[in-house]
């Protein structure tokens, strides 16, 4: 990656009053979790999202959802935060990044130590019963499901549900509303930000993809770090085309070099 480009982003971060990062699946691909759209590994290359990952699909056939989710869940449970996640946590700890708005459901930002994380699409921390709406920590249920290949759905353990309530991970499926409080908080962050760094998102999924437009409309600078082009590239102050696992640690080094002066 061109050091001049990295240095320019470092300068923007150092003068920003309220910098925010918007992250997508691309920041977790170096942790072994495939994204949805790029290359052959893209999860949508093999499955129809409207069948496997929509709320209507889940209600119609939770078995189909859980059949598809098994591989992704295993990758997420086994994944560790990578250098890109740690770099963003370092920028926050140094007071240079106010928050992360993420489309990811894998918990890797919080596991890397980031404090202010808005999970727009939910996360795999909890499950909710579709019948009684009781919530459960996901870890023990996911472990049982991943250990037992014959388990086709997860069911609610409360006596009232008598094995009939299906547990759904608290991740936002197609056709489902985003968590209103998280979306409002993310929009508030965008209203306050003067620098938005988009890292590893195709910016094709709304309403997350609308956040850069809102940031631009109020005069914030936009930086895009992604392996592939996005629709927003032409509006960005800087576009860095590279692997986040290299670019973000280089950005931290550039910032630290400047702060040491
Ligand atoms: P996306 O799959 O649409 O786009 C990912 C982008 O990241 C692509 O443009 C790709 O070129 C880029 N990319 C991939 N690896 C990269 C790397 N190492 N360095 C730089 N760029 C890289 O993902 P999205 O925009 O986040 O939207 C997809 C939806 O997928 C979201 O709703 C999200 O909830 C969900 N999702 C989440 C995870 C996760 O939690 N890790 C994984 C897959 C999908």
Structure description:
39% of the residues lie in helices and 16% in strands. The protein is α/β, with parallel strands linked by helices and 261 residues long. The chain has two domains: 1-33 and 81-121 and 178-261, TPP-binding domain (Rossmann fold); 39-78 and 123-171, SIR2/SIRT2 'Small Domain' (2-Layer Sandwich), CATH 3.30.1600.10. A six-stranded parallel β-sheet has the order 3-2-1-7-8-9, sandwiched between helices. Helix 1 (3-15) crosses helix 10 (244-259), helix 4 crosses helix 7 and helix 5 packs parallel to helix 10. It is elongated and about 65 Å long. The protein binds nicotinamide-adenine-dinucleotide (NAD).
Kindly list the characteristics that best describe this protein.
about 260 residues; binds nicotinamide-adenine-dinucleotide; SIR2/SIRT2 'Small Domain'; Rossmann fold; 9 strands; six-stranded parallel β-sheet; about 40% helix
For the biggest sheet, the summary is: 6 strands, parallel
Low-pLDDT residue spans? none
> Class by helix and strand content?
alpha/beta
Radius of gyration, in angstroms, nearest whole number:
19 Å
Number of helices: 10
Q: Can you list the strand order of the major beta sheet?
A: 3-2-1-7-8-9
What is the secondary structure topology, with strand pairs?
Elements: H1 3-15, E1 19-23, H2 49-52, H3 55-60, H4 62-78, H5 83-93, E2 99-102, H6 108-111, E3 117-119, E4 122-129, E5 135-137, H7 138-147, E6 167-171, H8 180-192, E7 195-199, H9 211-217, E8 221-225, E9 238-240, H10 244-259
Parallel strand pairs: 1-2, 1-7, 2-3, 7-8, 8-9
Antiparallel strand pairs: 4-5, 4-6
Helix pairs in contact: 1-10, 4-7, 5-10
